[in-house]
Specification:
two-stranded antiparallel ribbon, alpha/beta, 9 strands, 7 helices, single chain, 270 residues
C-alpha cells in the first residue's frame, strides 16, 4: 500500500509526543494535523494552531469540537509570529506548506515567512523534539520554498540536529493509463500522495543538481523535483552559540532523545 506523506509524518512525530506536551501546528488548514497533535498530547497538553484564514481556523475548530478536543489555542497569525505566542520546550512542530485546498489558491505559504517560522520552531524544540515539513515543489512558490529549505536544513549543525528527507524518486509525473502510478499532491495542505520514502541521511541533495534521466517505464528525475517532500528534523541538543554557533553544545537530554533514523527505518521496513 502506498505510503502517504502525512501519515509518515505523523508516525515520526508520534515517537516524540507524550501526554502533557506542547506542540505546534504551524499551518492548521482544516485541522487534520491539529487533531493528530491534540489527541497525542491529551487534555493536559496544549497545541498552538496557526493560520491566517479565519475560514480555515473555524473549520478546524469545528473538526476538533466534534472529537471533543479542547486543548488547542487558535491563533489567526502568520506562522512566522509563533515566537510571540509559543513558549520554549515544545515536543513537536508540523508544517504542511502550500495553500489551503478549500480556500484561495493564490494565498499560499511564502519562502521568507516559512523559513522564519521553521527557524523559530527549531529554536523552541526541546532536546528530542521533532519538526516535520511537507513541501510542494510542483508550483513556483513551492519550488522556491523547497530549495530554500533544503539549503537551510543541509547546514544545520550536527549532531545538534539530525535531518532526514523523504520523497518519491521514481514513477511518472502524472497517473498513467494503466493506473499503476498516482500523481503527486497538488500544492495544497494535507493531501495524500503515493510514495515510497528514501532516507538520504544528514542534509539533502537538491533535486535540481541531479541530471534528468528517463527510465524504460517513463519515470524520470522530473518526478523527484515535482513530488512533495517530507523533511524531518530531530533536535539532539541545544546550541550554546545559537542556531549556527560553536560546535560545543549542551547534551542534556540527548541520551533520552530517541533515534530518528531508527524510527524511520522501523516505519518504512516494518
Amino acid at each position: 500500500m502506498p505510503i502517504r506523506m502525512t501519515e509518515l509524518a505523523h508516525q515520526i512525530l508520534d515517537r516524540a509526543l507524550r501526554p502533557g506536551d506542547r506542540a505546534v501546528d504551524a499551518t492548521a488548514g482544516s485541522g487534520r494535523d491539529t487533531v493528530f497533535l491534540a489527541e497525542r498530547v491529551g487534555p493536559s497538553g496544549v497545541v498552538y494552531a496557526f493560520d491566517i484564514q479565519p475560514e480555515a481556523l473555524e473549520r478546524a475548530r469545528r473538526r476538533l469540537e466534534r472529537r471533543g478536543l479542547a486543548n488547542v489555542r487558535w491563533l489567526m497569525h502568520d506562522h512566522a509570529e509563533l515566537p510571540q505566542f509559543v513558549p520554549p520546550g515544545i515536543a513537536a512542530a508540523v508544517f504542511n506548506l502550500g495553500f489551503w485546498p478549500e480556500g484561495r489558491p493564490d494565498l499560499t505559504t511564502r519562502t521568507p515567512t516559512t523559513l522564519a517560522a521553521v527557524k523559530a520552531a527549531l529554536a523552541l524544540l526541546r532536546p528530542g523534539g521533532v519538526l516535520t515539513v511537507i513541501a510542494y515543489p510542483g508550483h513556483p512558490e513551492g519550488a522556491r520554498e523547497a530549495e530554500a529549505l533544503e539549503r537551510f536544513f543541509a547546514v544545520l549543525p550536527h549532531p545538534a540536529y539530525h535531518v532526514y528527507t523523504f520523497r518519491r524518486m521514481n514513477g511518472p509525473d502524472r497517473p498513467g493509463k494503466d493506473g499503476t502510478a498516482s500523481s503527486p499532491d497538488p500544492p495544497g495542505n494535507g493531501g495524500p500522495i503515493a510514495a515510497t520514502g528514501r532516507l538520504e541521511g544528514d542534509g539533502v541533495v537538491a533535486a535540481s543538481d541531479r541530471p534528468e534521466t528517463v527510465g524504460p517505464t517513463g519515470s524520470s528525475e522530473r518526478t523527484a523535483r515535482r513530488s512533495p517532500i517530507l523533511y524531518a528534523v530531530q533536535k539532539y541538543a541545544v546550541q550554546k552559540g545559537g542556531m549556527h554557533g560553536a560546535d560545543k553544545h549542551d547534551t542534556m537530554g540527548e541520551e533520552n532523545a530517541g533515534d530518528l533514523e531508527s524510527w524511520t527505518s522501523e516505519i518504512l521496513n516494518p
